[in-house]
Amino acid sequence: MKIKINRQAKTKPYRFMEVCGTHTNVISSSGIRQMVKDKVQLISGPGCPVCVTTQKDIDLIIGLAQWSNVIITTFGDLMRVPGTKSTLEREKALGANIQIVYSPTDALTLAKNTKKIVIFVGVGFETTAPAVAVTILKAKQQRIKNFYLLPLLKLIPPALQKIAQDPRLQIDGFILPGHVSTIIGSKPYEFLARDYRKPCVITGFEPEDILEAINNLLQQIRERNYYVAIQYKRCVERDGNLVAQDIIKEVFQPIGAYWRGLGLIPNSGLELSKDYESFDARKYFQIDVSEPKMQPCRCGDILLGLITPKECPLFGKSCSPSHPVGPCMVSSEGACAAYYKYEQ
Ligand code: SF4
Ligand code: SF4
Q1: Model confidence over 34-52: pLDDT tens digits?
Q2: How far apart are CA 148 and CA 117, in angstroms?
Q3: Could you report the average pLDDT of every consecutive run of 10 residues in the chain (344 residues)?
């Protein structure tokens, strides 16, 4: 595919942010970043749910794991993310009852088969939220009393608004996440083109999909006609999956949430709505977590696109996948892990 670029319009490369962690992996492993680097700088965004989970939230999970009679259930990626003093992996080795599950339903099944209290750590974006919501519905219908959710789910569009309006970042366009968009559709991103004049493309996960997205972004810039294109038409429609959206709306309501690197973003998280709040672990187990101390890790700057992983002084030295200092090196979708694996 030939990528056309209006050379007169800009001497510096255009800065496009790929929001999804899986896109970051494909871009790194296929060599696309190198291929287009003179004309387009591809910047990794906050698209990995593990990476944007704050140090304070990890501390909170560790606090919950200290309760006797409690089983913490979580997705595996979270185990090695550093909190202020420890990780879930370390706490498990020290005796805390922390179990890896592959879905929230597994956690509910565990609750049905034990007298202990089971807490599911709900980390993820709009992609994960429907499955978590269905599990809460089932827990309510089946009157399960020993199952709780720690709701750490996050919503992508409010985070993109924060990035689009940050003058330091100078993002010229967005490569939008395919999986999140199968749920929410393209409508919730339209403000990016309308209010911020940012071209956007929702794209799939093959290298060809991403190249097509880059081409489309450049075309929108050339024509000064900004909109949300759907390259990933095989899975995404403008309105998204209405059934999944209804389930999310039934169980959750938006709330301000803290993102690693991006801080507090209004309406960017989900909390359980009134009818389901009895399942909220945060409300049932009152745990005070103090403000964490600053760490040398620069994940926050990476998630904002302010620096690339190689610009972090710890990259490949004291921080590597076997000894990760920050979450971007832990998660398989993290930008630092992708750079370490493919772009050293
Ligand atoms: S949840 Fe889906 S869309 Fe989001 S980063 Fe992961 S793979 Fe990409
Ligand atoms: S290289 Fe390690 S310390 Fe540096 S930003 Fe990435 S995860 Fe954090």
Answers
A1: 999 999 999 988 888 888 8
A2: 8
A3: 51 91 93 93 90 91 94 94 90 96 97 97 96 98 97 96 91 96 98 97 97 97 97 97 98 95 93 97 83 76 88 92 88 87 86
**Burial class of residue 26, CB neighbours in 10 A (0-12, 13-18, 19+):** buried
> Of 169, 172, 181, 164, whose CA–CA distance to 218 is shortest?
172
Regarding the beta carbon of 232 and ligand 1, being less than 6 Å apart is answered no
Of 152, 245, 154, 165, whose CA–CA distance to 198 is shortest? 165
Around ligand 2, the residues with Cβ closer than 6 Å are 297-299, 302, 309, 312, 314-315, 319, 324-326, 328-329, 336
Ligand 1: which residue has its CA nearest to atom 7?
22
- State pTM to two decimals: 0.89
Greatest Cα pair distance, the chain, in angstroms, is 69
154 close to ligand 1 (CB < 6 Angstrom): no
Q: How far is ligand 1, taken at its centre, from the CA of residue 184, in Å? A: 13
Output the six-digit token pair for 217. Answer: 């972004």
pLDDT in tens, 219-250: 999 999 999 999 999 999 999 999 999 999 99
Residue nearest to atom 3 of ligand 2 (CA): 297
Please state, in angstroms and rounded to a whole number, the distance separating the CA atoms of residues 335 and 52: 12
**Residue nearest (by alpha carbon) to ligand 2 atom 7:** 326
